[in-house]
Amino acid sequence: MKVKVLFFASVKERLGTEAEELELPAAVSTVAALRAHLRARGGAYEEVFAEKRLVKAAVNQDMVPSSAGIKSGDEVAFFPPVTGG
Amino acid sequence: MKISVQKEDFDLGAETRAFSNPAIGAIATFVGVVREIAMTLEHYPGMTEKALRRIVEEAQGRWQVLDCTVIHRYGALQPTDQIVMVAVASPHRGDAFAACEFIMDYLKTQAPFWKKEAGKGWVEARASDDAAAERWQLKPPSAKSAGKT
Prior knowledge:
Chain A is α+β, with helices and mostly antiparallel strands. In chain A, 26% of the residues lie in helices and 27% in strands. Chain A has a five-stranded mixed beta sheet with strand order 2-1-5-3-4. In chain A, strand 3 and strand 4 form a beta hairpin. In chain B, helix 3 crosses helix 4 (127-134). At the A-B interface, strand 4 of A face strand 3, helix 2, helix 3, strand 7 and strand 8 of B.
């Protein structure tokens, strides 16, 4: 399945990329699984998506917990805790 | 209701004068200002507007809100620049004050904005902001209700 993945703020800077289209194995069907999938790339991805690092996620522009499901065509975003206002 | 995410500055007086509902008896406003250090604000276009709209709708469910304007700027900002404004119009002041504070507390933890300070890097999220949102004793508006609306 295909998803669009977006990165923001410090996550974007550390990875050196802001968006990509990903073709995922069917087993990668939750945000947690996608985190693990990205972590397995190694390098900056391994650091950014390390278990204890606080990286928030949104699916289709709603903030979600890691247990949230993802399906083909979704827009998934990863970013640090927000600091607006 | 007016939600705007913009680079340009805003005029609080002009925004509140635009409220025209004759049932309005009180308008509470908040303006956030850049303190001491120049910064750049990044946001997530699309999600930002959606999150702000949901925060205001949550306030409308709890208090009498006859009209509401939320404007948040992004891009490069200098000390003393305005960053954000919230204006809430209600029949009476109690609802206006409470809804205005609630919207700011939730915006701080739910709206996808990130500040980067000149020469210092990305601003870390503060636990005190989470605590401020949690004292309203409510689930984050964008978390559990996401699938139902």
